[in-house]
Amino acid sequence: MKKTLIAMGVLLFSVNCFADDSSTNAISNTSQTTATTQAPIEKGKQYIELPTYPSPENEIIEFFSFNCPSCFRFESEYHGMNRIAKAVPKYMKIKRYHLLDFGALAMELSEAWAIANVLGIEDKASEALYDAVQKDKTIKTADDIKTVFVKLGVDEETYEKTKNSFLVKAFMAQQADAIKEMQPSSIPSIIVNRVFYINSSGLDSSSDEAYIADYVRVAAFLSNIIIE
Hints:
Blueprint: E1 47-49, E2 59-64, H1 69-77, H2 80-87, E3 93-98, H3 106-119, H4 122-135, H5 142-151, H6 156-163, H7 166-182, E4 189-192, E5 196-198, H8 208-223
Parallel strand pairs: 2-3
Antiparallel strand pairs: 1-5, 2-4, 4-5
């Protein structure tokens, strides 16, 4: 399934990684107006309301891929989701779903992410898989993914048993359902309560730090909206 993907608004990231090798297209109907961190937060500017049903629980969902260089920078260099998690109310659940069809071994990497979640090693696995894909370029086969887990202390038997478990299959189904429901058109994408999509092109683009700070500010604002 082809996706039309964009860079994170006009962020000064040096790499536009939200497209495949064939194209990089802007999302239509999003504001390209440069914002400032203190600009009033308005629907249609910093965020877009999706035509979806609100989440039954309070949650923030990030859609990402280990194959995406800008997702890598958002996670490893700017610690975007960690900063958002600290800024929003403690009752908000943070969820991260890996795209099933973006880049090489996308399905296998999505499954690896499910395994990491079931084993409770999301943070370690995220860092290790990003490094293996983006820095070391050592992920060429599904066995290479398994090797990353072995280095994290997960033996092959545990890896295979977990891979074939009901819990991993359930997590994979959750990822697929969330992608189908919210149809993320760019990565990383952050959606609050399955309704509010943070519009990256409406955020402060004066610097990388200002951009991330504005991302956090908008996420915190949206987390406090009561959906009727």
